Amino acid sequence: MKIVRVNTYTVRPRWGFVEIITDDGLTGWGEPVLEGHCEAVLACVEEMKPYLIGANPGRIEDIWTLLYRSGFYRGGGVLMSAISGIDQALWDIKGKTFGVPVYELMGGACRERMKVYSWIGGDRPSDVGKAALERKEAGFQAVKMNATEELQMIDSYDKIDAVLERASAIREQCGKYFGIAIDFHGRVHKPMAKILAKKLEEFDPMFIEEPVLCENMEYFPEIAAACNIPIATGERLFSKYDFKRLLKTGGVDIIQPDLSHAGGLTEVRKIASMAEAFDVALAPHCPLGPIALASCLNVDAVSYNAVIQEQSIGIHYNVGKSVLDYVKNQEDFQFQNGFVDLPVKPGLGVEVNKDLVLQENQNPHHWKNPVWRHADGSIAEW
């Protein structure tokens, strides 16, 4: 079997897809995208075509290593996201070749279903108590929200109080044991992160996410010492080498590699195992589309330390199109009591609606994240 075609597509709301076709007629789908840089990632996939055409798609480890190591320059969001999507598509082909879900080729599942959470609140969170209750009534056992709006390195306590009020509203509406994840989104710097983390303790969050950016990972132990809340991070890390530094630094309880950024299934499977050796949990980052979600679920299936899965159905970013719009087998992505069953169809487990993909690609999106400024005019972290 050989690869004969590699096609890339841009689809709303902010995603990119890759389709790899073999001479046997098998097709694999991947989701290579870096939010806000979709065109750059798809251009990188195009650059990698000469390495792919004519290659045996079953040699996934060799192709991954070729794409990562042979170009001299390596790592980073664009290159690794391109490799991620290609890797997903190759695993999709591999599973279809043998007629089984991908996780069956990775040792088989160690669980039957995966716990999931739902987003609430938007970029500037509001009405979160009501939204969380709606998710609870829909069967979810946990939600995640952004913590703050703009927050300077040293800022006023009214912004801290606003976060506490939102956390309190969810706890009051949903009860003591409902899961609340609070995403600092890299908007908070160390001085305020320590304060906010400490004050959030009374609401027993499931975890706080990205209290500071991983470029400042040496401060995670300091923030961990300031509170008794699990700390999650990792969506902006791109390889096992990045996660090696994070795990050795310490202070983190949950890692969140993104299957569309951190090297696909091949690399994240290794990252997950490395985290398990540090007694650190896995909760893959996935505010993306159906191929990325299916990829996550296949890795979750074989990772003992996987605890909960992000998914983007209903997320505020999904304007115009959403996850299930691109899925023919929507029945396989239904959430029940806060869980989703593992994929059942061969490959990654998602049947892509190619007609819609082709239609969307006729008018490519150009999604960019908002640019925020503080009251003094300086750039704020989004």
TrEMBL record:
Record domain Mandelate racemase/muconate lactonizing enzyme C-terminal: where: 125-230
Endpoints of the signal sequence: none
A GO MF label: metal ion binding
Entries under SUPFAM superfamilies matching the protein: Enolase C-terminal domain-like (SSF51604), Enolase N-terminal domain-like (SSF54826)
Keyword Metal-binding: yes
GO biological process, one term: amino acid catabolic process
Name of the protein this chain belongs to: Galactonate dehydratase
Pfam families the record matches: MR_MLE_C, MR_MLE_N
InterPro entries from the UniProt entry: DgoD-like, Enolase-like_C_sf, Enolase-like_N, Enolase_C-like, Galactonate_deHydtase, Mandel_Rmase/mucon_lact_enz_CS, Mandelate_racemase_C, Mandelate_racemase_N_dom
Keywords, sorted A to Z: Lyase, Magnesium, Metal-binding
Organism (species): [Clostridium] leptum DSM 753
